[in-house]
Design brief:
Two copies of one chain form a homodimer. By secondary structure, chain A is an alpha+beta fold. Chain A has helices at about 15-25, 55-60, 75-85, 95-100, 105-115, 125-145, 255-270, 305, 310-320, 350-360, 385-400; strands at about 5-10, 30-35, 45-50, 65-70, 120-125, 165-175, 185-190, 200-205, 210-220, 225-230, 230-235, 240-245, 275-285, 290-295, 335-340, 365, 375-385. In chain A, a hairpin with a 5-residue loop joins β9 (about 210-220) and β10. Chains A, B: It catalyses: 5-amino-1-(5-phospho-beta-D-ribosyl)imidazole + hydrogencarbonate + ATP = 5-carboxyamino-1-(5-phospho-D-ribosyl)imidazole + ADP + phosphate + 2 H(+).
């Protein structure tokens, strides 16, 4: 049989779960992993251990692959172009992927598309940040005064005095951040100094007073077919995803459809191939703003493994292979995903056994990682008709595995 | 983390799908495979290539495993005892497994338990078979005359003349058969000669005039917890499983519960650990007889991958690790599994693409095997509320992949 070989760069849990989804598809899965012990490297037959930052390693890895895709966004754009020049399909391609790699490029592109984003600006030093803070304060004041999100005039509400900002500002390195890393919330010129020390360009964004975070996930294939998953609510704790509820509770149908259309439009205009997660802020004043883009399977889509007809992992693989996409519809009224973070105890096995005994319907997904405090080492999915019950079961299991719930 | 290592002997599709189910469980999976190209060996990290009939190979493989389990029943009993003597848990253990390895031992044990089976006898030559055929004819006649399955007297209905039997007889080698191999239906002394040529003991069984075949699948753990899956209907074509319907249509609740209790009783009394499939005949005169036992994940349980809360593969692994078992209940009203057999065309990929396009809800499970006519190379699962639709979708996909349906 001429079933193709998918090469995935990166040995994390996204690759691990992609391989799991690829087994029934009958495809061959090849992994480029930093170490032989990485989460995915433990479970994949065909593993190349090497550094994705080295072009020769990438080329050697890509030989014999029918397509290259990613567990993370860190492969340098010029290497991806080199692979394409070698004739290897890279999906998503570098021209799309750069929007998930570089927050400055992403913001400029979404601005050009007229897509609502938090107020933002590339800043070069703490003085730039102070000026941005004043502008953000004026914009917030204007919104409060007029109830109109789009007018930029109006009086500033901040104090502007000394080094304290009138409103807090979010600073992000344009490349390399994830899960709260490379992100700072600063309230003064003094606090704004740190982010510039790495020498990476820094993006300033208004600190959005959001009611909640949503995510719209879609999958698009090279021939242009696309599917949209239900819009979910994502609950972050300390900058890390804690819980995802599918679908987002009490989200009006029209807003959900608009968010799906927004994600489909971004996928189409940017030429994304594979899974695209659009992280959104739903503001207290009723706006929806794009927070981040991810062009790979994403934490906000883990619920699909047990809650949708076709998981994000299976559909990502189908997309990068240009196979027809699978049905993204939910199988249960409610599905809740809760991340399992490492706690103080390195051995989770007895807690894991307890969770299985307490809830025979619980779906546990472990990543094979050593436990370190705060590290994502797995997730659980629960589903059913009663949202309160489904949430409680997921939260209990995740908390018990972490060790924060004693019984 | 001290997550355990499960060693599975045999590199077929059952091991492949067990590994798939083991990835989210976070367990380590080790495979003993005949070749590096076997179905499971393509997708598992930790593969030992070797011969399961060689004790040294088995011992080397078992070193570092927390438990040994099986993709097939062919490992010699004395080797399993040797592994146990080495202190390696073997699950199911040799005392249970022998009932799935040796049909003579199985029949004797079920007789002792008073469990209804087809009329049967170990036979040594064609003359024995002729005598058995006469007895089977008398028993069938008695059932017809009285409507009572349990009386063995009454006049024979066969001719008894020459070498032709009054009723056909099923001959099976007591060890080594599967999927119709090692099984013959014979109608005369002349036809009965072949099965004895291998020198393996032969079991004669009445050819049961069944209305349909059912399967009751249960999973049992060492500490005695057990779960029962819904009883399914299994449709065989040319001795090979073609379609499984879950649950068995129009099976009265009481009969379904009796079949589940029968399977649970067999699992308990034989000390089975892991998945047990009890293949059953539902006769036209309303009896249920045990046909075969399998102590491993089984074709009649493949529907659970997409149709049950916990798949047979996940529950088999949980059982052999003595973890609490997962919920066996169905997720859809109807789930249908259809096996994909190889057809005349070695390349299935374009048919596979077509099937995905036609039915975005279709769940395809490919085994990574080369296509050979009649060989099981995958299966499909479909589910939904409308049994006719669910059956049509499964049958179409399986037929199209095989090449027997042109559109």
């Amino acid at each position: 049989m001429t079933f193709p070989v998918v090469g995935m760069v990166g040995g994390g849990q996204l690759a691990r779960m992609s391989h799991e989804a690829g087994i029934p598809l009958g495809i061959r899965f090849r992994l480029l992993s930093d170490t032989p012990q990485d989460s995915a490297a433990q479970v994949v037959r065909d593993v190349v251990v090497g550094d994705y930052r080295d072009l020769d390693t990438l080329r050697e890895f890509a030989r014999g692959c029918d397509v290259i895709t990613f567990d993370h966004e860190h492969v340098p754009t010029e290497h991806l172009r080199a692979l394409e020049a070698d004739g290897i399909p890279v999906r998503p391609g570098p021209d799309a992927l750069v929007h998930a790699q570089d927050k400055g490029v992403m913001r400029a592109r979404l601005d050009a598309m007229g897509i609502p984003c938090p107020l933002h600006r590339i800043v070069r030093d703490p003085g730039d940040v102070a000026a941005f803070a004043s502008e953000a304060a004026r914009a917030a004041g204007a919104r409060q005064d007029t109830g109109d999100a789009d007018t930029g005039s109006g009086p500033g509400s901040g104090s502007g005095s000394g080094s304290a900002f009138p409103v807090p500002v979010v600073l992000k390195t344009v490349r390399g951040g994830y899960d709260g890393k490379g992100v700072w919330v600063v309230r003064s010129t003094a606090e704004a100094a740190d982010p510039f020390k790495a020498g990476v360009p820094v993006l300033a964004e208004e600190k959005v007073d959001f009611a909640r975070e949503l995510a719209a996930c879609v999958v698009r294939s090279p021939h242009g077919q696309a599917v949209a998953y239900p819009v979910v609510e994502s609950i972050q704790v300390d900058g890390v995803c804690d819980t995802v509820i599918a679908p987002a509770p009490a989200l009006p149908e029209q807003e959900a459809v608009q968010a799906q259309e927004l994600a489909l439009r971004i996928a189409g205009e940017l030429g994304v191939v594979g899974h695209l997660a659009v992280e959104l802020f739903e503001t207290r004043d009723g706006r929806v703003l794009v927070n981040e883009l991810a062009m790979r399977p994403h934490n906000s889509g883990h619920w699909t493994q047990d809650g949708a007809v076709t998981s994000q992992f299976a559909n990502h693989l189908r997309a990068v292979l240009d196979l027809p996409l699978g049905d993204p519809r939910p199988r249960a009224e409610w599905t809740v995903m809760a991340n399992v973070l490492g706690g103080d105890y390195p051995d989770m096995y007895s807690a894991y056994l307890h969770c299985m005994a307490r809830d025979p319907q619980l779906k546990i997904h472990m990543y094979g990682k050593d436990v370190k405090p705060g590290r994502k080492v797995g997730h659980v999915n629960t589903y059913g008709d009663d949202l309160a019950d489904v949430r409680e079961r997921a939260a209990h299991a995740a908390g018990y595995l972490r060790g924060t719930i004693p019984e």
